[in-house]
Amino acid sequence: MRALIKIGGSLLDDPASRHDLARQIAAVAASGVQVAVVHGGGKQMTRFLEERGIKSTFVRGLRVTTRETIDAVLKVLAGSVNTQLAAALGSAGARTVGLTGIDSGVAVAEQLDPELGFVGRVISSDASLLSTLTGAGYMPVIACVAGGANGEVFNVNGDSMAVAVASAWKADRLVFLTDVLGVLDASKTILPLLTIEDCRRLIAEGIATGGMQAKLDAATSAVSNGVAEVRIVRGSDARIVSRVFAGEGAGSRIVGGAN
Questions:
Q1: Taking 80 as the threshold, does the pLDDT of residue 259 lie above it?
Q2: Which end of the chain is more exposed for a tag (fewer CB within 10 A), N or C?
Q3: Each residue of 86-127: pLDDT tens digit?
Q4: DSSP letter (8 states) at residue 81
Q5: What would the mean pLDDT of 218-227 be, rounded to a whole number?
Q6: Is 236 exposed, middle or buried (0-12, 13-18, 19+ CB in 10 A)?
Q7: Which of 97, 93, 86, 96 is nearest to 30 (CA)?
């Protein structure tokens, strides 16, 4: 099995949480699953900029990324956050390789909107490097930074990055470790299994909005591109990664049809 795990930056900010998730992910890899990790770092980015007197501006939920900000993206996402996560996974027994989307064309992007500056939309992903690394027993740990056709460096939304990479790598499972229990219906009850049609209905009826709408859009895109299933779970729940890969029904599972 190939599994891509996307970790939100807030789950990595606390060392205890970071090491707990690292131990679980390393154990999954040790069981024979080929694992790649994509991570964010928005919380860390905001703090880094605030410490330097730079205010973060968001448009439609995306950080406006100036030349000054993209330098911070490299220092924080591709630097400290990536290295700390790789180190935590390494201490748990994984053979990690820290990467960004720029490495070997893992993620090539173009400017999403001039209003957003150096925010990119992934237009292609070459997963050859990931296949080579995971086939040799290594675990790629990928920061959400992509390269442009003309040498640009782009800040990329973590969910979009995860979908692009998982699709190109032909992952069997994409797991979003988030700050929510899963996908909720109108009565705030967790929906354990959803199809693409179910996701579209939740969005159309205004039940899934904001961040959850974005997650469902990402999930349906991944499943449409051949990823067998997407799981949306709360990353802070006890043993959540272990439970997902043990077959427990935590969170929400999105598939192409009624499985």
A1: no
A2: C
A3: 999 999 999 999 999 999 999 999 999 999 999 999 999 999
A4: I
A5: 92
A6: middle
A7: 93
Q: Which residues share a beta bridge with 80? A: none
Say whether 99 sits in a helix, a strand or coil: strand
| Helix residue ranges, H only, 31-155 | 42-51, 67-75, 82-91, 128-135
Q: Where are the domains of the chain?
A: 1-171, 175-259
Complete DSSP assignment for 98-113: EEETTGGGS-EEEES-
Instruction: Give the predicted TM-score (pTM) of the model.
Output: 0.94
* Of residues 45, 41, 44, 25, the one with CA closest to residue 33: 25
Give dist(CA 149, CA 137) in Å, integer: 30
- Is residue 189 packed enough to be buried (19+ CB in 10 Å), middle (13-18) or exposed (0-12)? exposed
With beta carbons less than 8 A apart as the criterion, state whether 142 and 100 touch: yes
Q: Rounded distance, CA 152 to CA 148, Å?
A: 5
Mean pLDDT of the 168-187 span:
93
Tell me the residue type at 192: P
Q: What is the pLDDT of residue 249?
A: 84
Range list of H helices, 82-195: 82-91, 128-135, 158-169
- For tokens 């131990």, the residue is 23
1-171: in CATH 3.40.1280.10: no
Report the alpha-carbon distance of residue 44 to residue 25 in Å, rounded: 22
Cα(11)–Cα(13) distance, integer angstroms: 6
pLDDT grade, residue 30 (50/70/90)? very high
Gap between the Cα atoms of 68 and 126, Å rounded:
28
